[in-house]
Amino acid sequence: FMKIISCFILMVCVLQSTLADTKPVSISANEVFTQPTLGISLPLPEGWMLISKHEKPLVIQENDSPSTAEQDLHKASRKLIQQLLILQRFPRGTSHTDNTTIVVNAIPTGKAITDRTAAEHQQSVIQKMKESKKGFTLLSEPQKISLGKREFSTMDNRLVIRDKAFFQRHYDRFEGEYILNIQIIAGSKKDADAAELLMKKLRFDAEP
């Protein structure tokens, strides 16, 4: 089930954020995004554009637990992904791939995969995308990285959608009964590296 969800995270977020036509709002100085359920905060970069944010507490409903019915997987995978934050730099419309986009997602897992690591989760994403043959090219195997003094698993890939190529960097971490999934979607690795400096400012409630 989580392989199906992960596949949609990889593709739907690109289509809904990098190619979004939502009217952006300019970010001013000293704005901070907070998510109380996951206990995270992130200073928002001045000069970027805010596409959307969700700062209310998250609640896992009983029917949000992974389903065993194969026919429900496609519908449920789209339903469960909760986009918490979408930021863009240089949003120029749907015909450009030189935007840099940061997406923060939460995916409720219940207790279905609590015995897995974030790296194992990312390996399942890789396998599913290779099987899909949808323009996915793996650029780096999952490896550990520290964001907000917490351990994440990160990987890079190239994705081609609608004849447009994107560089995509993922950060995944199991946080309680959620997968905290952060993505940087950019026109190049250089742009993604620059955006990663912003993600280094991620903080968790437990930190001083």
List its traits.
globular; single chain; eight-stranded antiparallel sheet; alpha+beta; three-stranded antiparallel sheet; 11 strands; 208 residues; 4 helices
Written overview of the protein:
The protein is α+β, with helices and mostly antiparallel strands and 208 residues long. The protein contains 4 helices and 11 strands. A hairpin with a 2-residue loop joins strand 7 and strand 8. The longest helix is centred in the first third of the chain and has 17 residues. The chain is globular, with a radius of gyration of 16 Å. The N terminus is likely disordered.
Give the SSE map.
Blueprint: H1 2-18, E1 25-26, E2 32-35, E3 40-43, E4 49-53, H2 73-80, E5 82-89, E6 100-108, H3 118-132, E7 136-147, E8 150-161, E9 164-175, E10 178-186, H4 189-199, E11 203-204
Antiparallel strand pairs: 1-4, 2-3, 3-11, 4-5, 5-6, 6-10, 7-8, 8-9, 9-10
Helix pairs in contact: 1-2, 1-3
Number of helices: 4
Strand order of the largest sheet: 1-4-5-6-10-9-8-7
Number of strands: 11
Overall form? globular
Distance between the termini: 37 Å
Estimated structural class? alpha+beta
CA radius of gyration = 16 Å
Overall pLDDT metric: 78
Low-confidence stretches: 1-5, 15-20, 66-77
Strand content: 35-45%
The H-and-E topology, N to C, reads as HEEEEHEEHEEEEHE
Helix content: 10-25%
